Amino acid sequence: MTDISFPTEKISEYTVTAISDGYLPASLDLLLNVDHDEASELQQRGGLNDQSPMHINSYLVRGAGRTVLVDAGAGGIKHWGGRLTACLPLAGVQPSEIDTILLTHAHPDHVGGLLDGSGQVVFPNAELLIHQREAAFWQDDGNLARANERARGNFQIARRALDAYGSRLRTFKEGEVLPGISAVPLPGHTDGHTGYLVNSEDQSVFFWGDTVHFPAVQVARPDASVTLDNDPARAADTRSQVLEMVSTEHLLVAGPHLNDRGFARVERSNTGYSISDEG
Q: What is the DSSP letter of 54?
């Protein structure tokens, strides 16, 4: 039985639960194309300050005979997060019961939790799904050779995680990846950055990955990307398209770097977009 302290949404036959892996330190200095004072003011309007840590959320999706995890958190890598494996049993699921993990991309705060401190797989019975372009990017030796020191560390983390799942790693290009769950390309943050849309009987939730890192800022200013984006201009274009889609279609959104609830709604007005907690 799901602990009532975990934010949960019912999407037809699916139950979607937000589970926090913890936090990572974040600074508004990561933002691009927005004045620091404006970003700070937007943060304050959202109830945060300049040095508020960034949430790391994963999502448990249960239904249609599946037990799915969307992203695996940081798992304590770089002293980020690390709470997921302790929280899963409190939500009624053991790591061994996860049958599928959907990765939005392979940055450390999304794949670090795939392995434990000794390098062993945390989810021994799970199939790992990731976009073909994303897997290819991290596995390309040329990309590794061109990377700076910080990025090289990210390559090592991604490669260890993907390699450890071996034959249980499955790549895809587009379309439905599981019954009722479709992959949506979200290019810009990484080469194969991917969202997932759960759509069933006129109810939907959209996992938008790292479309935003600072929701209070980047929803109001979609043109504001972050230094973590592979292609900041393309990430901004993708963000604008996603915000238009989720506001027009009134989609419930879920994202690793959203608020405590892990779910939100986006509304559009004559002056732009705004985001509010769901629940």
A: E
The answer, yes or no, to whether residue 3 has pLDDT greater than 70, is: no
pLDDT at 26: 92
Rg (CA), the chain: 17
Position 117, amino acid: G
| Residues 197/209, Cβ–Cβ less than 8 Å | no
- The DSSP line for 113-170 is GGB-TTS-BS-TT-EEEEEHHHHHHHH-HHHHHH--HHHHHHHHHHHHHHHHTGGGEE
> CATH says 8-277 is which class?
alpha beta
- Domain boundary assignment for the chain: 8-277
Q: Model-level pTM greater than 0.85?
A: yes
What is the separation of C-alpha 15 from the centre of its chain, rounded to a whole number of angstroms? Answer: 18
**How far is it, in rounded angstroms, from Cα 157 to Cα 76?**
12
pLDDT digits (tens, 9 = 90+) for 149-199: 889 999 999 999 999 999 999 999 989 999 999 999 999 999 999 999 998
DSSP 8-state code for residue 78: G
Q: With CA atoms as reference, report the closest residue to 61 among 144, 218, 179.
A: 179
User: Which run of H or E residues covers position 18?
Assistant: strand 14-24
Residue 145: pLDDT over 60: yes
Query: What is the token pair recorded at 75?
Result: 């798992």
**Cα gap 164→242, rounded to integer Å:** 33
